[in-house]
Amino acid sequence: MFSAKGKGKEPAPTTPLPGQSSGSNPAASLSSLWAYLLPALNHIVKSPTNNLDSKKAPPIDMVFYAGIHTACYNYFTSQSEKKPNSRTSGEAASGTDLYEQMDKYFMEAAREIMLGVPQDDSALVHYIVPCFTRYSAGAMSVNRLLNYVNRHYVKRAVDEDRGWLRLNDVLESVAKNITPEDSREKISEILREKRTDELKKWGYKVDGSGESMSSAEACAEAASPPDRIVSVASLAHRRFRTEVFEPLLAVPVIKGKKTKNKIPKAAGPPPLPKGRLARAVKELLESKGGDEEERARLASELAAALRLVGVRSEHPLRKRLDKFLASTP
To answer: Annotated region Disordered: where (predicted)?
Structure first.
């Protein structure tokens, strides 16, 4: 799966994945539900395709699709009946086990991509861009397939202050603007303003000239720590960041003997990171000749991928890509 080298060699799935026969109730337990879901997830996220640049994931049969919706609904309903007081008792909310299983699934899928990374830096961007496109298409499709998880579990977690932005994250700045006389509505307004400020960092503009709020929030969710509850799509994108992009962005630690009386370096801006992805981008952007249109396309799609998985705009690599794209006709 996800192999850029096999492009054009493996046939793309042309028919929807048919429903899986199940001798037992898929909603009876997590293991039963997962066994029912897994073939669909693997088909949507991992099935080989000869068009890695496609932004559309392979489909599954509509009967199977509806069956998954029903199984998830029944599973959550049965869990809620078993834990009617989980909000106040401190027990894990219904759906926590499935959500954690999904997180593990996306982590393993992203690690599979990382295992296929070419050793040659010059081939790295050409590998990562189509792999991310394929992975992200699958993530968005799974997000729609498991929309009940978003509506039932994720929304509830956000309401309980377990989402990407929590009260503690903004408490210090909010406290400065609150007086004992302020009403609950006033405090809520200050919190909303703080949330809007965070979304502006991801391109959202109140006047509508920038990214939409949902697009900016998806990036903010993916940028959050792994303990934050986010939508299924952002869960997948966050794992791509932690398991693929962050290792490739990491600057290697060079061990060596300290030199006495070392001449201090002249003051100036910090150098660009020397991680593998930074080296690959440098080679891509500075190489002479070649297809300029293809170079711009790769740079644009990589910049979009970095943003979508939650790499912040002030990161040196994002700044370099943005500068290159701004100068491209």
So the answer is: 1-24
User: Please, which residues have CB within 8 angstroms of residue 138's CB and are 6 or more apart in sequence?
Assistant: 44, 45, 46, 57, 236
Long-range contacts of 24-33 (CB under 8 A, 24+ apart): 25/74, 26/67, 26/71, 26/74, 26/75, 27/71, 27/72, 27/74, 27/75, 27/78, 30/75, 30/97, 30/98, 30/101, 33/71, 33/72, 33/75, 33/98
Three-state DSSP class for residue 318: helix
CA atoms of 210 and 273, how far apart (whole Å):
29
Identify which has the larger pLDDT, 176 or 272: 176
- When pLDDT is averaged across residues 218-229 and rounded to a whole number, the result is 97
Whole-number pLDDT of residue 22: 56
pLDDT in tens, 258-275: 555 655 555 555 554 479
